[in-house]
Amino acid sequence: MEEEQIREALNTHWRASAAGDVNAEHDIYDDDVICDYPQSGERISGRHNLQALRSHHPGKPSGFHVRRIVGAGDLWITEYTINYQGQSAFTVSIMEFRNGKVIHETQYFADPFEAPAWRSQWVQSGA
User: Of 62, 94, 115, 125, which is the most exposed, with the fewest CB atoms less than 10 Å away?
Assistant: First the structure.
């Protein structure tokens, strides 16, 4: 699959995810996809299970913003912010493609935090 096609598939995926369209959101995945959540130690095997898990999430996302997508070949990374019940989670999705479908995804989630005052002389806000 050409990189242009992968980027368009990713854009379609993230738009569908933001809109809550769980069918279109999961078109990008291979039937045998593996999705890892390292922070919780969970592994979801198969597109059907991944879609079912996301369809039954009790706190549906209320906002979604893709910050950037970078990648080449079969490895693509998306940085985005997702809002659940009034709280933002900064998220990184690492997707590996084979034959035009995602065969492995790893997602990392991080809560926002206040910047410590001691480092203010070296940083800018608004990243």
Answer: 125
Q: Is the residue at 123 inside a domain?
A: no
- What pTM does this model have? 0.89
What is the β-pairing status of strands 101-110 and 75-84?
unpaired
pLDDT digits (tens, 9 = 90+) for 63-74: 789 999 999 999
41: left (phi over 0), alpha (psi -120 to 50) or beta: left
List, in sequence order, every residue forming a beta bridge with 79; answer none if it has no partner.
68, 92
CATH number at residue 87: 3.10.450.50
Domain, as residue range, for 80: 3-112
Among 43, 47, 46, 59, smallest CA distance to 13 is for 47
Asked whether the beta carbons of 123 and 100 are under 8 A apart, the reply is no
